[in-house]
Amino acid sequence: MSEFLGYERDDGSIGIRNHTVIISTAPYANDTVKRAADIVDDAIPITHPLGRCQTKPDVFQTYRTLLGYATHPNTFGAVVVAHAGEIVDGDELAEDTAATGRPSASINIHEEKGVMKALDATVDAAREMVQDASAQRRVPADMSKLTFGINCATSDTTSGLCQHKATAGAVWRLIDDHGGRGCFAETPEFFGGENELAERAVNDDVKQDILDRVDHWDKRLQATGYDVRGAQPTPDNMDGGLTTIEEKSLGALVKSGDGPIQDIIDYSEKIPDKSGMYIMDTPGHGAESVTGIGAGGAHFMVISTGQGHTLSNAVMPTIKITGNPHSAERVPEQTDVDVSEALVGDESIEWATEELWDEVADIINGKVTLSEAMGESQFAIHRIGPST
Amino acid sequence: MADRYLEVVESVDNVATALRDVTAGETVTVAVGDKERTIEISEDVGFGHKIAIADIADGETITKYGKSIGNATEDISAGSFVHVHNVESNYGRGDLAEDNEVAAISE
């Protein structure tokens, strides 16, 4: 398979889904967004607690993340809902979305003179987009257009021994055989493996950047004055056998394979076009790292889990894989791919990679993931500094 | 015949990961690289947890994936359970850091 069927965008990207998103610029528009998405059932609400009284680094990051979803390859169009005059500006977000050729609308609750009139306008705009999106047809597209995100969730000791290897096999197949991109993240989960990781950088600047960012996270965690254990590794990591952040990290890095790293990019920064593997600098916190990689434009993501997890994203389909036989049995509706036969049975890692790749091929071409079928998702933007 | 449910990643590792529940009193054969080693299990160790496959001294490195995953906080004999009660990390130790700044602002 070197082609898939996807939705063409004016900006040259191809989507594996055709979503209409309704985005709030600040928490005061969240209810309007949710109510509109209840009525226009196919639209996806994106709500959050940020966008007001944030200092500059956070404003850029919040804006860039929201724009990343408004202009995602899987996004047909975006309705932006603002409350009053916010530092994250609804009109600007809608204009930047329209600049990519996507339908967009900007609604302001105060300008509409109240939440009910704003709801009316939001529903009108979203309904029209959802219907137009549904009329668009998938067309053949080259797999080099795809970006494959990867993340961990509730890692345990099985992660680094089994499912992360299958994940690495699948992502590097997209990169090496098809000219696509991969992106992993979760910088605090490099602790203990960062030197070897940095050696994989394509040049010295990237190598130093990786080391600097890992060091920055270590200092940031030390500055709290507490032992990070409990936050990293988490209680469920430890229940699953992971003893220290180093053990977790050395396992986590297995999912990135051993090929070269093109660059390390900021949280929610657009993943570059050049084929290869990228790192996004995010915390280990799943909802934040997944939200960030989605904002960067990854078409889909494999979440390689130990214990099973509801971690998912509404715009970027998430495929969950585990090699832990107990997890697959305990949380079947969180287990898209069960490769435990490669851990405790007679199957090989090659078999596990094929199982995952087959699921990836199906999801790209329109099959929904369990989390899409279950209507699950989280949205959390990482913040740098305090609210003011 | 080595027990395939006790996985040692690299031949320099001093721990194995149990892929089945292991009971105190068992004698197991563990593959370490292309050699085998016999270990007497002294404690119950559940699926996913680690067993020492060599004696480890207090302060010595716990090695898995061929690298340090922390240090022993007490003497650990081969066949014992290795986890948070006898291992400490070398990262994120804000409790040990001197001159802590107020957290939160960074970039």
Instruction: Report helical residue fraction of chain A.
Output: 25-40%
H/E topology pattern of chain B: EEEEEEEEE
Oligomeric nature of the chains = heterodimer
Q: Largest beta sheet of chain A: what is the strand line-up?
A: 10-11-9-8-12-13-14
Q: What fold name goes in the CATH topology slot of chain B?
A: Archaeosine Trna-guanine Transglycosylase, Chain: A, domain 4
Mean pLDDT over all positions of chain B? 90
From the alpha carbons, calculate the radius of gyration of chain B and give it in angstroms: 16 Å
Major sheet description of chain A: 7 strands, parallel
Uncertain spans of chain B: 100-107
The biggest sheet of chain B, with number of strands, parallel, antiparallel or mixed sense and barrel status, is: 4 strands, antiparallel
Largest sheet of chain B, order of strands side by side? 1-2-5-8
- Give the percentage of residues in beta strands of chain B: 25-35%
Q: Which residue ranges of chain A are poorly predicted, with pLDDT under 50 across at least 5 consecutive positions?
A: none
How do the helices and strands line up, and which of them pair or pack?
The complex is a heterodimer of chains A (388) and B (107).
Chain A: E1 3-8, E2 14-15, E3 19-24, H1 30-39, E4 44-46, H2 56-70, E5 75-82, H3 90-98, E6 104-108, H4 115-135, E7 139-142, E8 147-153, H5 163-178, E9 181-184, H6 194-199, H7 204-222, H8 235-239, H9 245-252, E10 261-265, E11 276-280, H10 286-295, E12 300-305, E13 318-322, H11 325-330, E14 337-338, H12 341-344, H13 349-364, H14 370-373
Parallel strand pairs in A: 3-4, 3-5, 5-6, 8-9, 8-12, 9-11, 10-11, 12-13, 13-14
Antiparallel strand pairs in A: 1-2, 1-7
Chain B: E1 6-7, E2 15-18, E3 27-32, E4 35-40, E5 50-52, E6 61-64, E7 67-72, E8 81-82, E9 87-88
Antiparallel strand pairs in B: 1-2, 2-5, 3-4, 5-8, 6-7, 7-9
